[in-house]
Give the backbone structure.
Amino acid sequence: MRTFIERIEWLTKPWDPAVVRSLMVLAFVLVLGTAGYTWIEGWSPWKSLFFTLVTVTTVGYGDYGLSPDGERFTALVMVGGIGTVSFAISQLLTSTVARTLHPEKRMLQRAKQLRDHHIVCGYGRMGQRVAQRLRDQGAACVVIDDDEEKIDQARADGHIAIAGDATEDQTLAHAGIEHASTLAAISSSDAINALICLTANAVAPDLTLIARAEQSGSICKLHRAGAQRVISPSASGADGVAQHMLNPEAARVVFGCDSDTGINENALAFSEIVVAPGSGLAGTDVRTLGERHPDVVFVATAAPGEAMIMRPAGSHVLREGEVIVVAGAEEGLRVLYGRRAA
């Protein structure tokens, strides 16, 4: 069943703009022809549409008793319609073959349409978890890996995935780096992650870079390579184990690992909200926002160019451009985002 679904998946993907335009022109010819025959010959809409179809498809027809004006209009429909039909069919066949036989081209087209998306370089165990979390939060992401098997797995998991070397400019360009908001270099090699950051920083200097460090000595090097945030899985994992040993109840709240999958849906989650213009948050104080969302804790807030304020007072008024760091259960954060969007 899954193979069948994968084979017809292309039907749900966005069509090539050239195909859409050709079909629109074809529809315009059919509408124009139908309206023209209805007006000139006084036929019913169905008879007019049918006559237009047999004309543009060159199927042929019998004697419909056309008037001189109708014959002249038919000549115009034949000249414009036959070319339109031929062009639309050729575009449709070309796009269908490309979408069916060339998944890489389809991925490049989808990546080209994204804006403010996230790029995940490396689809190992950590990359899979990161991409899945982004997808769960409704964020668009593009996966890059040079292993074809991992790329196939990423596509089977529903992600836009591009096979290639993330240290090359062209590969990052294919992933839409110029329009991306963040890039995570999380391969298993610190040297490769540093090179990815150097390349990405050169191509898109304003891009937020997050890097994975296996060795503690690589953290400073990754920062020098341009990464604004460096994550050490071994250090984070060790801290989590120590917290579970020393403060088990607090660890359950922060990390959570009650289920068989190691994921606790009730674990504390952190997120941030930007007070964007027109969002309705500007001018609202923290107390009022907290009353609307009692399940969310306002941890900190930071305005552009100012120091971060921990546990902002209830009287603190939010301003445009300010970033609020909030904590709570996943459901509470989803409600906050949903109401903010509304």
Remarks:
- The beta strands are 118-121, 141-145, 160-163, 182-185, 208-212, 229-231, 269-274, 297-302, 309-310, 323-328.
- The longest helix spans residues 68-101.
